[in-house]
Amino acid sequence: MFAFLAIFFLFAALYLGFLLTSKSDKIKQEQIEIDKLRRTVDEVDEQAKLVVRTDIELNKTQEELDKKIIGLYVLQKISRSISTSLEERLIYKSIEMDTVKELGFEKSIAVSFDEKEPKFTTKIHLGFPQNELERIETFLEKNREFWVDIIKREKTLSSFSMPEGLMVREEINKAFGVTSFIISPIPAKEGNKGFLLVGTETLDVPITEGDEELITILSNQLGQSLENARLFEKTWRTQQELEKRVEERTRELTQALEEKETISRRKSDFVSSVAHELRAPLTSIKGYAAILSSGKLGILPEDARLRIEKLNKHSDELVQLVNDLLDIARIESGKVTMKQEPAGLKRIVEETLDLLSVQCKEKQIELSSHIGEDIPHVLIDIIQIKRVFINLINNAVKFTPKNGRISVFVHKIIGGVQVDINDTGCGIPADALEKIFNEFYRVDNAVNMQVKGTGLGLSLVKNIIEAHKGKIWVQSKTGEGSTFSFTLPHI
What we know:
The protein is an alpha+beta fold.
């Protein structure tokens, strides 16, 4: 019996041991599961926190993005407003209080600094009572070096970028009555520079980096618009001054031209009067000389006859001089009407060369013409243009030495015909080229001392050509010959 009980208790003990062991394993397994579950819960919690943080960051980013979009829209509106103004006062006035509030600020002030005086001047003050401006300007003057340094550095400064506890930051907050601020210099190449300050009075509206960027853009736009306005004003003043000078100069030139025309008219009238007065006695002198030369009053001694012939010859020269003076005076006064008709220059050139060929043969001068086949007809007074050719070629003959060459070129140009009369004569000094067409002017050289002349031929030629709406000029070098050129418009 005792043995049976012992065996029973032994089996009971073994069974209980088995049960305890099995229970312990189960408890361990459950503990493992609980640990797994706890880790899972922790991971889910971390993920939830991350989601919340991410959501908060996304909300902040979205808010910042919305704020930037609104700010850019406001800047665009301000830009359109200030870009259409060319007055400094209107440019500053474009920045209104509602616009500042749209950017997220409650106060704004723009200050200009005049380096010449030197002095700070408030241009706009939004959100600042009028009675605070004097205190603010006093604060600026007291800390002038600090504000001038900010303006010169042209770098935006804000309570966001300045270290907390900095005395300057607290002084600015107190002076302008704000809790946070942005100071952005207004750049300018010329004229007064300054700065723009915006701020908030609310602690829960912090300044961000994006706000700095927007205000920097706004101040740059202000500076550019002010620069454009100053440039426009400078240009306008310059234009007004220029117009005034042009008007004064035009008045002076008009007066001088009127005086010149008056003098020219008086000169022409005087010359015409004198020439007419000279004609009568010259006619009498020539008449008496002709009678004496003819022997109607008796045969003259040889010496007397020679002197009468010289008198007759010099009288002819004087008559020619008088006629030239009269012609110049009439052309200048517009009293001579050119009898213009279509004509070709080839025939006029040939007749002139034929007329002067004898003189050229005597001096052994080669005389030639070169006329193109496509030369158009010109509207001219044939007699007057023939006088031009005779005068110019005759001058060339006078100043071209023996075995020289004279060439006449006629060629077509745009709008008309050009004639060039070239010689291999003594040439004209450079300082005489501008005077050569003046009345009574003669070049001071050895040839002119031997060749007689009145100095009226080229002046007469110039007047005839200009009466035909043409131009005349000369190219020459001493010792290398001359080329007289003139143009005539075609029909």
